[in-house]
Structure formats: C-alpha cells, structure tokens
C-alpha cells in the first residue's frame, strides 16, 4: 500500500477536526463521522442506492434500512446495538466487485500526547454478509503524518466468512488495536465491500468505530484466557467454566479454539463449542455489578450482549448450515443439516437461530436450527419466542414447542 494513494484520497475528503487546547488531550468517543450509517436515508430495495454523509464512496456503496426484504432484519440490528440503517456494497453498476467508503480523521490536536508515546488506537465494527454467499466487508485504518508520507500505525478488521456466520445473514463483531508512533497526525479509514457472487454486493457493516486511548491493547486472540473476574462487565466479558465434558472457546478475531480446562474470563463475542459438554456462564445482568448464570450444552454458539442498563446475553447458534436456500441473490438449494443448543438458565438470556429467538427468565429449553425452520422446545418454565418472519412474539410454556419457518416468496 502506498501513502501516495492515501494522500490523493485525502485531497477529496472532509476532515474530522478536533479543536486544540492548551493541554492536549486525546479526543473522546468515535472519531469517525457517521460510523453507524444513521446520518441520511437508507435504501429500501436492492436496486436503490443512497448517499452516505461523512464518507467519500464509490461506486454504489450505500446505506440500507434494516428489515428491507432479503437484507438483515430489525432483530439483527437490535442484536448488535444498531439503529435504522447499515452499510452495504450496493447493486452492480458494471464497475467491478468492490465498493468503497473512506474518510480522513485529523488527530493533530492530540499531537503532544501522541508524540510523548503510549497512545493506542482501536478500530472496531460489526461486519457481515448474506446467507451462504462469501460477499464480505472489511475495514482498515492507516495513521500517518499530516503529509501522508510516513506510516505511524495500521489496523485491519478481518472479514467474517459465510462459515463463520453459520450460513446466516448476520453480523460478527471485529476489533483490532495497535500502538501509534510519534508523528501521527491523521488517520485514513476505508471500508471495503467485496462481491463474490450474485448481482448485489452483500458485504455489510455497522457501528464502524475508531478511538484513541492510553489504555493497553487487549490480549492477542490466541493468548491463554485470563482468570475469571470478580464481576463480569456488560459488553466486555463473562466468566466461563466446564460443567462436564470438554468445552472449547475461540476469542473474537482468532482462528483457533482453546480448550477450557478451568474457570476463565472470556471476552464478549467469543464462540463457545459445547457440543461435547456443558459450559457454565456468568454474565453481567446490569451496569451496577449484578450478574446472572446459565448452563448450556449440546451445541455451539457466539456470545454477545446488547447495550443498555439491562443487557441481554445473546447466544447465537453457530456452525455452518450447508447449502441453505437463498432468495433472489443466488443462494444454493436447501440442505438437511441442523444445529441445536440446550440451555438451563435464570436471567436475561436469549438464544438466536436463523428464524427465531427465545428469551428466558428461569427455564430449561432447547433450540434446533435448520435452513428452513427454527424449533424451540420448553422442558421447564416458559420462554418468549420471537418469530422473525411473522414479526411477532409467542409466549411458550412447558412442555410445548414452536417452529418458526422461513418467509416464503
């Protein structure tokens, strides 16, 4: 990558500028303009594009409204703390397989702190795609001097594959952290969507975020998991231990599972393989030190948490469902494979499949997922099932079951 290209791009972009102060301080919050796609309208069909304020985009990079037919649902938005819109690569206009958005962030107001050393940058975002297609999204940030002649740090978010998404239309959280070296004065940030099949570029992104901090970068994805924390922090971590059998955990951004042999702290966004055992999870139930516990077995899942004062711990079934049928975007024929998960929990836990979710309070329940249907069974207590296709809630008491099916047409 050449900095000459970065400088050329910078010439046509507005700068996000932070006012200087006598005592320089790192700018707080997200440094990106419109990193959540909420500024401006979103497209409501796969033939429409909308301008994306704050970003220089080409050729058809766009914002799309959650819930638009054949796109991520409003339930997906709620699951990642999204809003009304998300970013997408857009319809094909004959300009190739890539769609790009970019902007320059001016960080020169914090030059004294940066030049003194010890400043880290974190780039994060929720990246996704459509069902079994391998269209993808990634994001990068390059720090440089104000002439774009010297690299002072780089960050890149890996695109989730269809297999990592479990063949679902969904998002996975990605985050990367690095030290930035003295002399950094700006950051060139780029979001790239790549199309591999179909007429639409189904690389998706939301909550793209760039921050500066003096805090140390978190441990590398493949480093040993740390000891359990006294109190889990909402949206940050959970405590996990083996109830029986063998449990494996994969940190966000890692390609390798680690075996869980004793109690450990695991970051939110981790994938847990409990297909051959039972994992006991303790997660935050509020932002004031409360916690909740649950046991989960006979399945694999990605653990995330919603934002707010009373976060919900989401367990999204993982493991690829091969050859799930697609709509309008070139999906393959239906398959026979399935995946499932049992839970025995009390508190604000929710399991999520392709076509439904199940929220519990104190319940023993299971969820089975196929390409065409999600079935929830209650063995004890009650759950609230959200049918994504019908967009309605069903209160389900033991010993009943409910099947949510894919939308027809």
Report the end-to-end length measured between terminal Cα atoms. 45 Å
Sheet with most strands: 14 strands, mixed
Number of strands: 25
Bin the strand percentage: over 45%
Query: What is the CATH C-level name of the largest domain?
Result: Mainly Beta
Radius of gyration: 22 Å
CATH-defined fold name of the largest domain: Jelly Rolls
In terms of structural class, how would the helical and strand content be classed? mainly beta
- Helical coverage, percent range: under 10%
Describe this structure in words.
- By secondary structure, the chain is mainly beta.
- It has two domains: 3-213, Sandwich (Jelly Rolls), CATH 2.60.120.260; 237-405, Jelly Rolls.
- The chain is 5% helix and 47% strand.
- It contains three helices and 25 strands.
- Strands 12, 13, 14, 15, 16, 17, 18, 19, 20, 21, 22, 23, 24 and 25 form a 14-stranded mixed beta sheet that branches.
- A hairpin with a 7-residue loop joins strand 16 and strand 17 (313-317).
- The longest helix has 8 residues, at 3-10.
- The radius of gyration is 22 Å and the shape is globular.
- The protein starts with a helix and ends with a strand.
- The model is unreliable at 1-23 and 325-336 (pLDDT under 50).
């Amino acid at each position: 990558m050449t900095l000459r290209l970065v400088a050329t791009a910078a010439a046509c972009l507005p700068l996000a500028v932070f006012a200087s102060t006598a005592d320089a301080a790192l700018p707080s919050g997200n440094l990106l303009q419109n990193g959540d796609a909420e500024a401006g309208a979103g497209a409501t069909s796969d033939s429409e594009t909308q301008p994306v304020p704050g970003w220089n985009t080409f050729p058809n990079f766009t914002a799309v409204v959650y819930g638009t037919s054949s796109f991520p649902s409003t339930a997906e938005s709620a699951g990642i703390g999204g809003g009304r819109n998300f970013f997408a690569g857009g319809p094909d206009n004959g300009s190739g397989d890539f769609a790009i958005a970019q902007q320059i962030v001016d960080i020169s107001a914090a030059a004294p702190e940066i030049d003194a050393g010890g400043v880290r940058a974190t780039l994060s975002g929720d990246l996704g795609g459509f069902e079994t297609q391998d269209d993808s999204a990634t994001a990068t940030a390059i720090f440089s001097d104000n002439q774009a002649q010297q690299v002072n740090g780089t960050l890149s978010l890996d695109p989730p594959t269809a297999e990592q998404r479990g063949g679902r239309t969904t998002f996975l959280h990605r985050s990367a952290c690095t030290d930035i070296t003295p002399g950094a004065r700006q950051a060139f940030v780029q979001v790239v969507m790549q199309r591999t099949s179909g007429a639409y570029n189904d690389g998706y992104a939301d909550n793209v975020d760039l921050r500066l901090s003096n805090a140390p970068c978190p441990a590398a994805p493949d480093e040993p998991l740390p000891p359990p924390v006294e109190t889990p922090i909402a949206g940050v971590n959970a405590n996990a231990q083996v109830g029986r059998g063998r449990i494996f955990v994969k940190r966000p951004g890692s390609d390798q599972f680690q075996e869980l042999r004793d109690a450990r702290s695991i970051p939110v966004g981790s994938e847990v393989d409990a297909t051959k055992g039972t994992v006991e999870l303790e997660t935050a139930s509020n932002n004031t030190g409360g916690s909740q516990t649950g046991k989960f077995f006979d399945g694999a899942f990605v653990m995330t948490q919603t934002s707010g004062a009373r976060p919900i711990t989401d367990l999204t079934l993982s493991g690829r469902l091969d050859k799930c049928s697609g709509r309008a975007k070139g999906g393959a024929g239906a398959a026979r494979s399935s995946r499932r998960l049992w839970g025995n929990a009390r508190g604000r836990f929710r399991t999520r499949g392709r076509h439904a979710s199940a929220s519990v309070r104190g319940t023993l329940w299971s969820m089975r997922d196929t390409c065409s249907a999600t079935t929830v069974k209650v063995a004890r207590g009650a759950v609230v099932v959200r049918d994504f296709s019908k967009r309605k809630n069903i209160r389900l008491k033991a010993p009943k079951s409910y099947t949510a099916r894919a939308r027809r047409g």
